[in-house]
Amino acid sequence: MKFQVFLLVSLAWTASAFVANNIPLKTGRLQRQTNLCLANLKAIEGTPGADWKKTLAHGFFAGLLLASPGLDLIHHSTFSDGGLAFAQGATSSKSTRAAPSVDANKDPESILRFSLPIVNNKNIIREAQESLEMNMDKALREVKSDKWGKIASLSRRSLAIITKEKSNILKDIPAEQQPKAEAILKSIEASFEGLSAAIESKDVPAIIASKRGVLRLIGDVEQLMVKAFPYEIPSQYQNLPQLKGRATVELTLKKADPAAKFFVDGKTYDDAKLTLVLDGYSAPVTAGNFVDLVDRG
After folding, report:
1. Residue 160 has pLDDT above 60, yes or no
2. How many H helices and E strands in the chain?
3. From 21's CA, which of 7, 72, 91, 100 has a CA 20 to 30 Å away?
């Protein structure tokens, strides 16, 4: 009886720890662990004190199965895969092997910029981008009174990179595209005036809007650094529509009832417009099929 109580407590503890850490399913590992447990139980048969040993062994091996990384006691799509969790910007208060930190990038435009297949991903313009994106966003969330000095410093650092490192930025852009890149860099410099004014007035909505405008221009420069499609599409998909780049599609949604309205942020609209960016660098066939369907109407 004591062993049964002990085993129940052990299994309950193991289960609670497993639920807290949410370990995903791997059926192959689970099958191997099960076979090992059964083989060991069979070896106990016929030995002195077999009943006592089997009782203990059953519980022990059950605990091993429960604690095996092959089991999935609870399945939650947000944390079932680390890469998916990061892409979706999922966060968790616990430190698990599948969930990213609370500073996960949740901005879709930022994710698109960072996923551009740039040959030299360490170009100095990435530092200007990082100062305005992750670093400034984190500083804006702080409650300290001295955060404004940090925010202003990040803005100045990003501007300094744009103005003083032009040659290093342009070296990764094809010669025929460099005049276009120089014009965009000048527009970026001018855009910093609005961002600096918003920071000085501590107007958070204005800071976010100005920062987003600057970052979109930085993304335009980074787009010019993409020299070729980064990989070969397998031959079995060559007959399917392909998008080797990016495309923007605007969807207009209307309700079946002409009198019905869309309610968004307390305002009413006759229709709703959605803007989709199709990323052919990451999914050329899927994006290509989508564009093909749009073209067909």
Report:
1. yes
2. 12, 4
3. 7
| Angstrom distance (rounded) from CA 185 to CA 111 | 21
pLDDT tens digits along 47-67: 555 555 555 555 555 555 445
Lookup result for tokens 């994106």? 133
Helix (H, G, I), strand (E, B) or coil at 79: coil
The percentage of the chain sitting over the pLDDT mark of 90, rounded to a whole number, equals 53
Do the Cβ atoms of 117 and 226 come closer than 8 Å? yes
For the chain, how long is the longest CA-to-CA vector?
87
pLDDT > 50? residue 10: no
Q: Which two tokens stand for residue 75?
A: 């399945």
Q: How far apart are CA 181 and CA 163, in angstroms?
A: 13
Structure token pair of residue 247 = 């495309």
pTM: 0.62
Which stretch of 51-60, 70-79, 155-164, 208-217 has the lowest confidence by average pLDDT?
Answer: 70-79
d(CA 87, CA 293): 26
Query: What CA–CA distance (Å, rounded) separates 74 from 65?
Result: 15
